[in-house]
Structures are given as C-alpha cells and as structure tokens.
Amino acid sequence: MAAVCTRSFLGRVLPPLPAAMLRRYSLDVSAPLLRTQAYVGGRWVSAASVFPVLDPATGQELARVSDCGPAEAKQAVEAAHRAGRSWSRDTAKERSVLLRRWFDLMIQHKDDLARLITFECGKPLRESLGEVLYSASFLEWFSEEARRTYGDIVPSPAKDRKIFLLKQPVGVASIITPWNFPSAMITRKVGAALAAGCTVVVKPAEDTPLSALALAELAQQAGIPPGVFNVVPCSREKTPSVGQVLCCDPLVAKISFTGSTATGKVLLKLAADTVKRVSMELGGHAPFIVFDSADVDRAVAGAMASKFRNSGQTCVCSNRFLVQSGVYDRFMEKLGGAMDAELRIGHGSEPQTTQGPLINSRAADKVVHQISDAVSRGATVLKGGRRLEGSYMEPTLLADVTTDMLCTREESFGPLLPVIRFNTEEEALAIANSSNVGLAGYVFTQDVSQIWRVTEALEVGIVGVNEGLLSTAEATFGGVKQSGLGREGSKYGIEEYQEVKYMCLGGLQV
Ligand code: NAP
After folding, report:
1. Is domain 286-473 given the CATH code 3.40.309.10 in the classification?
2. What pLDDT is recorded for position 13?
3. pTM of the shown model
C-alpha cells in the first residue's frame, strides 16, 4: 500500500514555504512492513475502531491503525505472561540468536524502515536512516550481552554454606515510547528486556505507531516466539485507559517509559500501587557551554549537530547555549554562517532537507511562545524567528538571552538556539545546574583541567566534551534529577530487566 501526499515543500533556507504545493509525496513502503493492526500473542489483531496516522509535513493521512483499548492491552499482557514461561527458560544463546536475526532483518529492510520514520515523524531521510541503524544496534548489542549476564559466587563467612547471586528476568515489561525516535526508543528497551528473558508489551506514541508495527513484522519473521513481543497502538484518547492496564496490571512486573517528565510522574504514581520496577527516560534541558579556550569551529559544528537534529526534537538536544565573553562574537558569527549554509527546510523525503516539520502545531506554538517571551524580555532575533506553514519553524538564533526567559527555563523541543553570554566558569556552572532536570550537557574547551572540573560538576547523566553527538549502544543513556531513573544501553542496560536472587546453599560437609 502506498499512501500519497499531495503537498510539497521545496527545500530552501529560512524564508516562508511556497504556497503552491507542486509535488506529491508517496510513502511507498513494501507491503509487509506497512502493518496497521495490533500485534498480540503472535497474531495481527484488529480493534473495534481505527485512528489515522498523519504525515506531519503535509497533514496527509498515511494509514489507519487499530485503536486498542484496555481489553487488547490486557490480552497483550496475558500473552506476554504466558510466553514468558518458556522465553525465560530458553538459553541465553537461543535468545541471542533470535535477537541477532531480528537485527539482520532490520538492516536488510533499513530503507523501508527509514521511510516509515520520515513519513510518520517528519525527520529527514538521512537522519531516519541513522535512527534505523542506531535502533538496530541495540538488538545487535543486546544479542551479544544476552550471553554475558553472569551472576556471582561470593566467598561465604560460614564453612558449611555457599553463596550464589543469580540474575533472573523480572517478568513482563510494559514499554511506553515517544514519537521522536519511533524505532530506537523501542529497541533500546526491548533488546535489553528480551536478552534478559523478559517479555514485553509496547505502546508506541499515537503519532508514530507504524515503525513499532514494522518492528513487530520483522520480529515475527525473525522467529521471536508468539507473545514475547506485543504491540498495542492506540489513539491519544485511549492512551490513559491503556496506560492504566500497562502500569497497574498485577501480571506486569516492570514499566519502562521514555517521554516527558510530566507523563513520567503520572506513570510513577500508577506504578506505586503494585510496586513495579520502573525505568524513566524523561525530558532534558541540556546546557551547551563554550569556554574561551574552545576550538570555536568545533564548537559550532557541535552546536549544529546537537541543536538541529530532528529539528531540535531530541531529549539530548542542546537547549541553553552559554558562551564565554572572549569567544562570544566569533562563535555567534560562525554559527550564523553555518545556519545559513547548512539548514534547509522541507519534506523529510527530499534529499536536501535538513529541517523537517515539528511533530504538530502545538509543538510549533510552544516554540513561537518562547521566542515572543524572549523578545519581550530583551532578546534579539539574529536568524529566523517565524513560524511557517503547517508545523514548520524557521531555525532561530537568539542573542542577549537571560535566565529569566522561558526558553532558558523549559525544554524547547524545536529549532530554537538561545545564547547567554557569561564571564566565569562558576557563573556558567551555576546557570547550567539551575535546572530541575539533568539529561545531557555539552562542554567545549581545550583545557584538560577544566574538562574534568566541569564534567564532574555538571548535574547531568551524559556529558559531551568537544562532541555534539554522543549516543551509542555501548555507552549508558539516562539522566539525573527529574530526567529520570535508570540507564539504557551499555553493559548496565540489561540490569534494568533483571532481579538478583540470593541463594544460600547450606548444610555442606566440606
Ligand atoms: P509524552 O507526551 O510524555 O508521551 C510519551 C508516550 O507516553 C506516548 O506514547 C504517549 O502516548 C504516552 N502517554 C502519555 N500519557 C500516558 C498515560 N497516561 N499512560 C500511558 N502512556 C501515556 O512525550 P512526547 O511528547 O511523546 O515526547 C517528548 C518528550 O520525551 C520530551 O520531553 C523528551 O525530552 C522526552 N524524551 C526523552 C528521552 C530520553 O531518553 N530521556 C528520549 C526521547 C524523548 P500518546 O502518544 O498517545 O500521547
């Protein structure tokens, strides 16, 4: 099935998008990967109603997807619980082989998977392909980690006893994911969960269920047993009732959520009643600090990469730019030049596009509100500043920014780059740490002592030193403060899905 879009946005720098919509955009993804039913217990299941999935660039309907409710969520939890009995007892090597096969299929179908991401979330195709490879890397990584989940044999204080610490899967995990990485936020959790021997029920965001369902199709093709991986898409209207089942059902042992801090708090409260294990990957408000000793060209490249990826809609996007007085003018001039030279607005499927639309008009409204608030408090717009047709935003550079402005106090989730000038390291750290969230932070300096001082002092879970893009399956991902609980990826990610059981073997005659 190929959905057809009827509007066109020609890639161009900053000015408003052309009113005339000349081209048609076609999703054009091979049939088996464009799934629209829920995937429960290894079967494709229709719900009583459907909800539309839209291309955020054009508003065009891409597909109608089964709108699951609490009944389907409950069936999925029960299917996962049944499947867990044998999946948890399969050998680590058996689970590893299936995860690897799933990874291979993702790579084989990477172009179709990338098109799905671009059409349902608006991200440029090059970035979507990057997401598919990043997403698949978690299946590969955890297929390898599956075989290395060692327990411990601990020296005992008593001669007649041996102490064993066993790693065991927690059980059924509910996986609730956002729209901004419709594939990777699923595999980063599910790879670890399945490797540990857990089974899962995934609830993708309303905006982006197609990538999740395509993953289910490939899981089926890979031979992941029925019930081990379930997907229950639903509309925003049904989300609270589906969330209630996924967070409160006694058969669910673990909730792993990625999304906003506000929603994370709701789910934490729901989890409390039955005392479930939780992982929370929540919002960020990353500081990006450029010191006088920085390589300014490198800092500009880092700023472009960390700010404008996915049009500013990533949780690790730099949100507050702090630039020391000695390099401020040079940094601003070069950054403005890079924005003019590199940023092209347009439909994500156009090869020249670097800036797709924001996910919806609410997201664009939020950025517009932050810009007008900043201007009303004395900020200067150096680039962009306007909302364009649909949910497109001009990439915007603000100077003369102060810490009382909204854009420095809350996540923008859009292509807004506000710059604060500072004089001392203490001043920069005080501003950087003044947030109640702490996911990522970026530091640009050539001074080794400063690198250590600032890295240790920053209240975040991830620090990029002279780097704007950091995420990789081999390293931890996660935040401090209200950015969440737990870590994904790396050798630690699998522990989020394991219990440690202490076995005391007594009465030994040794
Ligand atoms: P969101 O509104 O919190 O939604 C995330 C997911 O939670 C969606 O699937 C949503 O479903 C679901 N949800 C909302 N209310 C729920 C409820 N009562 N019960 C169960 N599920 C519920 O976040 P978003 O706007 O999609 O994503 C952007 C946010 O995610 C940003 O703050 C960003 O920083 C954060 N994020 C964090 C990370 C990280 O790793 N730390 C990564 C990516 C994004 P619906 O779609 O149906 O509303």
Report:
1. yes
2. 43
3. 0.95
